[in-house]
Amino acid sequence: MTLPVLSPSEIELRLERILPGVQKPGRYTGGELNQVVKDWQAIETHLALIFPDLYDIGMSNLGLAILYESLNQRPDALAERAYLPWTDMEAAMRQAGIPLYSLETHHSLADFDILGFTLPYETLYTNALNTLDLAGIPLFAEQRSNAHPLVIAGGHTTFNPEPMHAFMDAFVIGEGEEVIHEIVDAYQAWKRSQAERPALLRRLAQIPGVYVPSLYQPHYLESGQIARIQPLADAAPLPVRKRIVAKLPPPPTHFIVPYIDTVHNRVPVEITRGCTRGCRFCHAGMISRPVRERSVEQIVHAIEDSLEHTGFEEVGLLSLSSSDYTHILELVQAVSARFAGKHLGISLPSLRIDTFSVDLMDALRGARHGGFTLAPEAATERMRQIINKPVSTQALLETAAEVYRRGYTTLKLYFMIGHPSETLEDVQAIVDLCKAVLAEGRKVIGRRARLNAGVSTFIPKPHTPFQWVPCDTVEQITAKQTLLKHSLRDRDIKLSWTTPAETMLEAWLSRGDRRLSQVIYRAWQKGARFDAWQELFRYSAWLEAFAEAGLEPDFYTHRPRPLDEIFPWEHISSGVRKKYLLEEYRRSLAGETRPDCRESCFACGILPAFADLRRENPGEAWKCPEVKSPAPRSNDFSRYTVTGETQLDAQGSSK
User: Fold this and answer.
1) Considering the domain boundaries, does residue 178 fall inside one?
2) 53 lies in which domain range?
3) Lesser CB count within 10 Å: N end or C end of the chain?
């Protein structure tokens, strides 16, 4: 898209003409409470933080909020926000020649030095391309010069960055709080050097946790599998290890208050990061290790400060497993006592059935709350052993009864279908369990009891023990969903699911290699965007794009991977060893479970790979057989000897 060069004032004049004709113009104006506006001319480095989806979705993204507040504390940098406009606004902008701009100062994104994309899920990929096109920036990284912004991306999807490699100059692998400042420093040093763009990329590649795809070359076998991944420069490390924050910094508290309703109008406070449960299907649980926790005092202070600066009436205590937070009962009691009488809503997502306590539910009774969510994932003991979520049906029924007994009328259960070992009997068990849970509710509160059943479809994600297994077929997924729809016809049960086409798209993009970039580009050319929105999702465009790129979709989804296959993401290290993941996969085949890592360390590789974390957080360091000495006493860390670092051989296989 060729765009005129417009100043912020010219953009504002054109916006005045088109905003009255679009839905929710409050998405596009900026000016909200707590936004940060700096003197553009007085600041050395300008960053645009981009969530390539609607404002309504992106405003609730905690990662973007963390970076926004942190970067704007620098006197030499500013961070502003941009989101992708809805289709009506996009059409109006293209018609009026308005480039995509930041909300704070209405500068075109092309005016910024660095564009930072947040990509938490794969269905944002075509949106990212549309963002660049609306900004008048070349989509392909190789076509950009010194005159263009540096384009980087972070988020969970970047643990397999290859499908988007052609469009991003660099990726941040892992946690961004510290590395984003190192990127800014490197950019400033490069700018002062007046060197060409390749020098900047080489400089970035030397920052731990930064992956520059142009410095690597995959080689393929005749079968289409990866033969090896070759670094093209001395500056390119192999593997690229994820970046991790040793000690969680104070959480952000000056959240921007949106003008319109967003998906979460609340204060989000991350109470803990990482998970030790070891669910074999869980990508987030594997890539976010190890666990780090914030203190009760720090969390309560953050809530107090946030409420004062925002006026929100709900707080989300966020983590992958809120009830695994060591001091969860103390925290809930402290929050309830501190904010008693203020009608504060407390949200605790991701509560574990087997760690959920009656005391915790009682502590929440004094707070304003909605429904409860529990995630059994599977309905039979056999399937729970396979996925390493050993929760008994009896425990679930007892917990459900206690939830209903304490004033909750709606209970939501999350299930997953589509694992290769699953049978129709396992799917029927979901029906039976839902009916049994609702029956428990009706015993307690009668016909007021409600049940919401969310049934997603399993996708074998990278860096998990199931990365070797195939996806379920569209035909099998359809048959299983038909069974659920026909058998869960009850006015008090609400069933939700993902379509097989949506599942296939996510699987292609999460498991793909570099060749998928051409598929993404061609799909975008055919109009694919907002792929996470059912009303705009165009499955046919993706199938046509695969055909035009000469690729077979089933290659990425419906074949089991040989145990010695080199994955497209092999050169990206989550810190968890491939050997450990393979051991977990073999245990799943045998139906063997592992206990929580807090009980015993199973040498996944994360602790020795990040030994500095143990030095920083001795209270959180569990016994680990890979550390060749006893745990240190007090502040004595001199006895640590770390062994067993992950390596890649000449063919790219991790050991």
Assistant:
1) yes
2) 8-241
3) C
